[in-house]
Design a protein that fits this description.
290 residues, alpha/beta, 4-stranded mixed beta sheet, 12 helices, globular, binds 7,8-dihydrobiopterin, binds fe (iii) ion
């Protein structure tokens, strides 16, 4: 299997906003923390302080524990300092990237317990929505759960499966598993619905919407159901999947996912928001106002 490091660096990626001119062979760059100005740190604090108030009541306890261990409120965090803490907890480290990178190096990094974190931060007019993941989405949304041993093992298994699927084909079902269970996952904690996905926990609107809105379909986790369900990238999700614990994810990733993909890819795709026979529906959290 070609190693991601064999990827020759490429010129700036058309349509992506990051600076790809200085990427290394494995698509990483230097974070250059001294390059952030006071305005960047102020945008980070605005986003962080807004989400901190929300995640207390809406996020999974494991996410909150990881966030506390990172202590990332003062400004754009230093990836090397966070890597030192994570390495001691679960063996994960962070690598700086200019933005989205191709699947092969992305999965190769995950398989080696390295999480790619984008270095640029959004502009003030993008506080509520931006198209590509920035440092706040990647660090605040994804990094806290890397401190949870079970989730950390799941993500490494997922990376290994993805690296294999890149070679064997059938990436789409795996991309859906990542989208729904890493970016937009819900978890039941003592009967209380909580968010743990990076895509919702880095968004004020979707943190609340995913837990309380009556409209979205919330389906109890079923690996094959997830891997057959398409997703939208331009709006709140129409379907969320709910797990009882992260061990459920780890068990789902432990089976040879790459073997599954060709079979699942041959089955009809399920649309976002579409209910199918066998779905076990999970109700939204009842709003405190009744
Ligand atoms: N690159 N930096 C970065 N971050 C991602 O989340 C990412 C990526 N490249 C590919 C990718 N995600 C997807 O293919 C996976 O979500 C399946
Ligand atoms: Fe993400």
């Amino acid at each position: 299997m070609p190693d991601a490091a064999s990827h020759a660096p490429v010129p700036p990626q058309p349509g992506l906003r990051g600076d790809y001119a200085r990427v290394a062979a494995d698509w990483t760059v230097d974070q250059d923390w001294t390059g952030y100005g006071e305005a960047d740190h102020a945008i980070w604090r605005t986003l962080h302080d807004r989400q901190i108030r929300l995640v207390r009541d809406y996020a999974a306890p494991e996410f909150l524990a990881g966030l506390a261990a990172l202590d990332a409120g003062a400004g754009v965090p230093r990836f090397d300092a966070a890597s030192e803490r994570l390495a001691r907890l679960t063996g994960w480290t962070l690598v700086a990237v200019p933005g989205l990178i191709p699947d092969a190096p992305f999965f190769a990094h995950l398989a080696a317990r390295r999480f790619p974190v984008t270095v640029w931060i959004r502009r003030p007019h993008e506080l509520d929505y931006l198209v590509e993941p920035d440092v706040f989405h990647d660090f605040f949304g994804h990094v806290p759960l890397l401190a949870d041993p079970v989730f950390a093992d799941y993500l490494q298994s997922y990376g290994a499966a993805g690296a294999e699927a890149v070679v064997r084909g059938g990436l789409k079902p795996l991309a859906r598993l990542y989208w729904y269970m890493v970016e937009f996952g819900l978890i039941l904690r003592d009967g209380d619905l909580r968010a743990y996905g990076a895509g919702m926990l880095s968004s004020a609107g979707e943190t609340v919407h995913s837990v309380e809105a009556p409209r979205p379909l919330r389906v109890a986790f079923d690996r094959d159901r997830v891997m057959r369900t398409d997703y939208r990238i331009d709006d709140f999700q129409r379907t969320y999947f709910v797990i009882d614990d992260f061990a459920q994810l780890f068990r789902a990733a432990a089976e040879p996912l790459a073997d599954l993909c060709p079979r699942l890819a041959a089955l009809p795709t399920i649309a976002p928001g579409e209910r199918v026979a066998g779905d076990r529906i999970v109700p939204p959290r009842r709003c405190p106002t009744g």
